[in-house]
Structure formats: structure tokens, C-alpha cells
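Hi L.,

You mentioned the student needs an example of a multi-chain input paired with its predicted structure. This one should do, with 601 residues in total across all chains.
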Amino acid sequence: MDIVLFANPILLVLFGIAIALCAVDVFRKSGYAFRIASGVVFVGALVYALLLGASMQEVLLVTLVMFALNLTAFFNGGRDK
Amino acid sequence: MSFNSLQFLIFLPIVIVVYFLLPHKFRWLWLLAASYYAYMSWNVWLVFLILGTTAVSYVAGLLMPRAKSKGVRRLLLVITLVVCLGILVFFKYFNFLLANVINFLNLFALELDPVMLDIILPVGISFYTFQTLSYVIDVYRDKIEPEKHFGYFALYVSYFPQLVAGPIERPENLLPQLREKHMPNEDDLSVGFRIMAVGFFRKCVVADFIGTFVNSVFSDVSSASGLAVLVAGALFCIQLYCDFAGYSEIAIGAARMMGIKLMKNFDRPFSATSIRDLMSRWHISLTTWFRDYLYIPLGGSRKGKARRVLNTLIVYFLCGLWHGANWTYVIWGLYVGVFVSIENLLRKPYRAFCEKHNIDNSKGWIIVLRRILVFLFFVPAALFFRARSVAEIGTIFACIFTAGGFGTEYFAATLSALSMTALDILVIGAILVCLALIWRMSEESPGTEFYEPIVSESEPLSLETKRLAPGSLGLTDKAESRRSYVARVTAVAYAVCAIALGWLILIAGDATSAFVYFQF
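Structure written out for the whole complex:
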């Protein structure tokens, strides 16, 4: 099976950075700059993945991972009003 | 006009903006026009059908309180029931009844040719008919005053968010809200938007994505392995729930943005620890309708065990038939009814058994075990529901019991039947994690976080929400507020992205994305 995400180290690093930045914000509550930076890196990585020919399922997978991570913020003391 | 269409995404904001811009006395007219427009987008001529049902029940509601005797009131009720249910039976069940009569007569070697009339099934007829009947019956019972304004009543019957697939609203909940003057406020708009986002996520990302694997197995079930059929059944449980709950949430969210609170239709059914519990959490508006207007009038559980079992089976038989003109739905209904009856009969012996052996039913592992058992019960029910004919039910269960196996080849054949790759398995895993988190969010703040359920005498629910006190994270109020705002926006942004991707995957696969419950 030809999965572009796992075959390209740059994509893995970019998505890893996006997830890590988001995780720092979620679990250490260090302000929203990390989360915004995570979003920017994620969007950049997403566009790059699509340009490399990643399938919609691959892109959906990483989007769901980011979504799940953001949802955990609501249980981790980062509840919104 | 389906919710997951571009037309609806343009239609809804226009309706909401104009609704709030108009003076209050004209708002009902705008909503009524929008609701009829939405309904006519399915088929222009069917609007006369809903108008007819509306007119008959409106007149009956006005005449009943003026009737001098109870006999006349009852006659009016019967006439309304005959007309409204007659329309429903004709459009939905005529061909089914005709086919069964012909099949029955052919048993006597009459050799009659099958006859089918070209009858369109009006979208939402089961839903708005039941909604209308609940109004008429409640007026008959003097539970509510009749609505004198035809416009508000017509809007109650045809209110577009819930017209085609529920929730089946009660007049005492919806009518007063339609009359009330609602002002645009941040709470309604943001909560409504979030509920809709969750609904679209369930529909576009979960239900449609999982549906491709279910359809792959059911397109040729006879050649699928037993494991593939079971997995498809389990996936169909999730698809059906997310499809229907997603629709309900979109409807509830759209109404909430206008300040109107519709009733809850699903309450985390896979948290159920018994079959009765499951049915009280699944399609709540329909099960409570049958409870209030059929089960209790039949005597409910007040006339002995045997009568209770009979009443339960009658209710579930009709509940199954309500879902569609096919014996598969009847089998589904009776299957559920039998298990509910067994559970009712065994409840006291089970409690006695637990007390005798000091079994604490609130222990974590027992709750998990019971939830698993309920899910395992639900899978065959879903297979009955999904089958297109009784013969297919036979094929399905023959596959389960005869097409078993083990080993890498067998598992590879199973994945092939499901048209599932390893990547799809990872995506399904991620989807289930997201669903679990959304589930957990609704558990932590029942009702208020997404929507406030109707607090009725029979369903008292807590409306408290746990709110994090500002400053409890060591941040100032302003920083906390900014932080939580960014958190909300990013979560919604990822949800929207996931929804768009789910929609694109469906389009790319040339699959259709109708709501499963539109066929009812």
C-alpha cells in the first residue's frame, strides 16, 4: 500500500511538529501561540501532502488526529465557556 | 433539500438572518414559507399532502373543545386518525399490502399477477403524520389548548429543521417556542453551530465513510465471509446511529440558532446497560410517542405480566412497521420486542440474584460487560434492519454460521469483502477516538453543552454544566478567555476540515449520501 505520509520524512516531521506544538498547548496550557503555530504548520503540511499526491484518507487521518488532540483540551482543564 | 447539500448551507443562513431582521409578527410567515420551500424542493406536489393533513388536524383541534358530548369529540378524533393514518397507509403501505394479499391468494393457486401502483413515498410523511396526531390526541385529552392561529399550526407541522426526519416534536414544546419572540444571542448561535458541527461530523465523516464498507459487503452478501458480515453489522450499527443522530443534531442545531430548542432524539445509546435502556436512548421522540399514545392507552404494564408482554410486542411490531413497508422491519421490531419483554420478566429475578450473591451492578467491569452485551444484541438487530428482504436475512445468517474460518487468508478475504485497507482501519480507529471524546464531552455536561432537553414530568434531567472558574489555570480572565476562544475555534476548524474531507471522499467514490432515515 502506497501511503505518501509514511513514505515522506519531511511530511512526517512537519505533522509531528504540528502535533507536538498542539500537545504542548493542550497539556501545559502555555497560551494560544503554540496552538496557532501548530495550525499554521498543519495547514502547510496538509497542502504539501496533497501536492505530493496523498489520498483523502491519509489527509483525513491526520486531520482526525489533530481534531482528537484539540478535543482533549476540553477535558484537560481547557474547557471553553 | 438534504442537510448535507450546498443548497442547505446557503438556505439556512439566509433563513436565520431574515428571521431575526423581520418584526416578530411576520416571522412565522417567513419560517412557514421557508419550510414549505424546503419541502417543495423534494417534490412540489407533495406540499398539498402536508397541507391536507395540516388542515384536517387544525379543524379537528378547533372543533373538539366545542363539541357538546364526549361521543362527538371521539368521533372527531377517529375521523382525524382515519384521514391522517389513511394518507400514510396509502402512500407508504399500499403496494406492500397489495403484494402480500396477492401472495396470500396465490397460495390458493389463483395465479394472480403482481400489481404495483406507481406511488411516490412522500419524504417525512411518517414523521409529520405522527407529529400531527400527537397534537390532535393531546387536544382530545385536554392536555393542551388548540392552536387557533392556522399559520402557527401549519408551521408546527412543517417546521423545516425537523420536518423530514424528526425529532417528532410535541405541541406543548414546539408551539409556544414558535410563538415566542427570540432575539439573536451568542449562546444560541454558538451552541447551535457547535451542535450542527457535531452532527455534520457524525454524518459526513463517520456515517458516510463507514457506510462504504457496509455497502461493499451488502452488495454481494452471499459471497462474503461470516466475519465480514459480522463486522459489516457492527459497522452498520455505528453508521445508523451516526447518520440518524447526526441528522437530529443538525436539525436541533439549526433550530437552536433561531432560539428554538427541539427535543433530544438520542442520548448516548451505546452507553446503555440493558435493552430497555438502549431503546429509551434511541430515537427518543419515536419511542416516547409510542409509549404515550399506544403503550399506555393499551394498558402499559398495569394489567398483568401477560398483557404487558402483549402490549410490548404490539408496540414494537408497529414501531418496526413504521420504519418501512417490509417484513424485515417487522422482524426487527419483534426481535427487539421479544428481548425487551424477556428483560422485563427477568428484571426482578436478576435483582434478587444480584442481592443474593452481592453483585454490585455499578461496578465498572459489570457496566462494561453489560454495554458489550447490549451491543452484541444490537448487531443482529442492525442486520435485520439493513437486509432488503426476508430472504436476504436468511442469506446473512447462513453466511455468519457457515462461512467461518481463520488464518491470514480468511482475514484477507474479509478485508477484501469490506473493501477495507490498513489505512481505512487507521482512519476508523481515529474516528472512533473522536467519537468517544465527543461522547465524553456530552457525558460531562449532559444537555446544556450541546442542547437543553425538554424537562418533563417523566424525564427530569439535570441542566447543570460544569464551568471552569476563570483564573483557575493561573491565567488572568482576559488571557483565559482568549485562550479558550482560540481552543474552540481551532477545534471547530479541524472539525470543519474533517467534514469537508469526508464529503470529498464520498464524492470521489461516486457514492451517494442520503440520510438513511429519509426512506422512513
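You could point out the following to them. Residues 4-72 of chain A form one domain. Residues 19 and 37 of chain A are 10 Å apart (CA to CA).

Best wishes,
N.
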